[in-house]
Predict the structure of Dihydroorotase.
Amino acid sequence: MTDHLIVNATLPGGEVADLVLRDGVIASLGAETAAPRDGVALETHDARGLIALPGLVDLHTHLREPGREDAETVETGTAAAARGGFTAVHAMANTDPVADTAGVVEQVWRLGTEAGHCDVQPVGAVTVGLGGERLAELGAMADSAARVRVFSDDGKCVADPALMRRALEYVRAFDGVVAQHAQEPRLTEGAQMNEGELSGRLGLQGWPAVAEEAIIARDCLLAAHVGSRLHVCHVSTAGSVEIVRWAKQKGWDVTAEACPHHLLLTDELAATYDPTYKVNPPLRSAEDVAALRAGLADGTIDVVATDHAPHPHEDKDCEWPAAAFGMTGLETALSVVQATMVDTGMLDWAGVAERMSAAPARIGRLGGHGRPLAVGEPANITLYDPSAVRTVDETRTASLSRNTPYRGMELPGRVVATFLRGRPTVLDGELV
Ligand SMILES: NC(=O)N[C@@H](CC(=O)O)C(=O)O
Ligand SMILES: [Zn+2]
Ligand SMILES: [Zn+2]
């Protein structure tokens, strides 16, 4: 057992403080630090110039295990998460087998505990095998050791409105939430990139904004009708932001997430024909990017979620139409949020703590995460250096996959340390 003393950290609100981490919790915070204990080592960390954030929580991670251990495993994905400053991730259900039973979600949860890099909260599938036809055993997953509260067919849309309604009704019994991947399948058959003038010019089939917006509008209405919680995954268009804003104004229990790549990158990158930039939903226009940033700033978008979607090179080193959708993102998320939201003056660090820790923990009903940095709270802490600058090197990742869209880009900031219940998982930027 070791106690940790963090000296001169800047808290999200701007004040500078020392923190003592002991027995898994924050034992003291402020200028007056807890005295060392007899027989217990005390490790001191100089945090001058570093921001201390509550440990980040990802509401949307693909860990690929079971089934695609060539792309990622729970061990490697959570190592990447810890390096990105995360202390908890929600593991999406589109594995093989699909996480649609108590057995599979318990397996993923157990693998997370064994790896020990961060907490793994499995997401349960809404429908059996993501087939979109029959509801999965939602109650059994909720009651399992994995305590599932978030249900999603992510990768696929729960397109049948009657099934979506029943899922929304069902999860109320255990305070669950349906996280919808909003994509009307009939409007996106063969779709490859954002629909617009550019998709025509590049000869890649267009993916219209309305395919996302129509489902979000429908689901907001359904959630209001049955009085349930709805969460919208990876919002990517200005129209989607408008619809979520409208639903919130109505007082409906709707939350939404945006991904770092949709906050920074645009569909212009498709002109490279480099499938690294192929993602679902697709990169959109500069106007959409601006609307997402504004929505995140004013709270219409509750959460930044990574949608970390690792793919091995053989699924990406091919022609655009044949390539898999998805980008990695755990190790770059905080830097992209700094670049797009903090350095632009749209969000302060307290806002980052809310969008990347408190809100995702609340939506996922993850007790023990997303708590403010205060005495007695679990010592889940990320130390971040906002003055650092790095050039993204895709080979220097804990992930098994290299499909980062930021390769070669200069990004601000660096995660220096991550503590999970008082135990360092990352120190000096490297896994412990
Ligand atoms: N985002 C993606 O492009 N891909 C995700 C699925 C998803 O999040 O819809 C994946 O599992 O690879
Ligand atoms: Zn999705
Ligand atoms: Zn996803």
Q: What stands out?
A: Residues 60, 62, 92, 154, 307, 309 surround zinc ion (ligand 3) (CB under 6 Å).
